[in-house]
Design brief:
This protein has five helices and four strands; from the N terminus they run ββββααααα. By secondary structure, it is of the alpha+beta class.
């Protein structure tokens, strides 16, 4: 798998200090490949606003195609882009843990787990406030 550089802001919690921003180290994200090309899923209209929500809430542009072509199909199944309600204990096509969704939704003000724009916004917010989307606070199984 080829890796490409991506940069994200990092925030860390220090006892008695709260959350602070630290310099963003260089990150590696999987590069798009022909079998994970967003075109295989459909155009942005079929994605129903996910890319717009992701962009509007500061999602790392280098990661958008990877979320759409690899992470969300892995997490939400082959029909993830229909944005169904899941009854498996996780929230949205991105399969957030309920507490993580609540944190992201409280920050964005967007709560509808079946709305593509909302899911994009909350994925963008969450992925920019954790160490790395492929880490334990993100989507470790489906990212890599």
């Amino acid at each position: 798998m080829e890796l490409v550089e991506a940069r994200t802001p990092d925030r860390v919690a220090a006892p008695g200090v709260g959350v602070r921003e630290v310099a963003a180290p260089e990150r590696l994200a999987p590069a798009p490949t022909p079998d994970t090309d967003r075109a295989a899923i459909g155009d942005d209209a079929e994605l129903g606003g996910f890319p717009e929500g992701y962009a509007d809430y500061g999602g790392n542009p280098a990661w958008l195609d990877h979320f759409v072509s690899a992470v969300l199909p892995c997490e939400g199944g082959p029909e993830w882009f229909e944005f169904p309600a899941y009854a498996n204990g996780y929230v949205s096509a991105a399969q957030f843990a309920p507490g993580s969704w609540a944190t992201a939704a409280a920050a964005t003000g967007l709560w509808d787990e079946t709305d593509p724009y909302t899911v994009g916004a909350n994925v963008a917010w969450w992925s920019s406030h954790i160490e790395h989307p492929g880490g334990t606070g993100g989507w470790p199984v489906c990212w890599w």
